[in-house]
What does this fold into?
Amino acid sequence: MRALTVLQTGPLCTVQDRGRPGFASIGVGRSGAADRLSHDAANRLVGNDSDAATLEATFGGLKVRAEFDALVAVTGAHVICRVDGTEQGLFSTITLRAGQTLELSAPTWGLRSYVAVRGGIDVPTVLGSRSTDTMSGIGPALLSPGDVLNVGNGSAEWPAADFVPPPTLHETLHVRFGPRDGWFTEHASKTLVQQLWTVTPDTDRVGIRLDGSEPLARAIDGELSSEGMVLGSLQVPPSGKPVLFLADHPVTGGYPVIAVVTAADVSVAAQLTPGTLVRFRAIG
It folds into this structure.
């Protein structure tokens, strides 16, 4: 049987691929891996197409048993990865024999880990994707101990010899102002990029709530009609403290978006843990 059996999940474990783009008009967000760079890297290490489904484990604690001889890789947060108690390397290809267990510790850096298996996790697709959308409930259910996950047969070429892990996490996220920066004072725009922001414990796959010593002041106090939201939006509620939207963000919102984090840095943001200090840098 080509399958992995889930023995424990840690705080949260879901199945993710690169998401289901193109359905915002019917109220369905893209979802997909929160840290797409780490998801893609894990797939590349085991020779999968980048859209093959992986396991996204939040804050470690995942333990799975292989029911066949499998090739796996673990990327993302810095966890200790063990096979039957023996420590293995991250960002490397690991052989998992039938009956052996793979276990992830809590991370010392970062938040989300990605486990890829050659052939991909083979759960039913919904609107063309195997991703779990925690906000809408679309896609496979959150994983639980005892779940048996089938593994597919699809694969791509093996990774190129020049593969290197993604860069180490940094605290600077690059943004482009707009589309509603005009709703804020000039001082607020300067405050966004000049002061440090703290990642609060109120963070999940939908978004990250940030806290700062000085909230962002509005220049326009009226209500904004609901409009489309994109990945990386920095939406500012009445508190003046921005929320950075991640993979399962709502497709519409009624609070103004002062800036949008670049696509490359959204993957960095997905690894931010509560208490991390963040600075924004404007580009473009």
Remarks:
- The helical segments are 36-46, 186-194, 263-269.
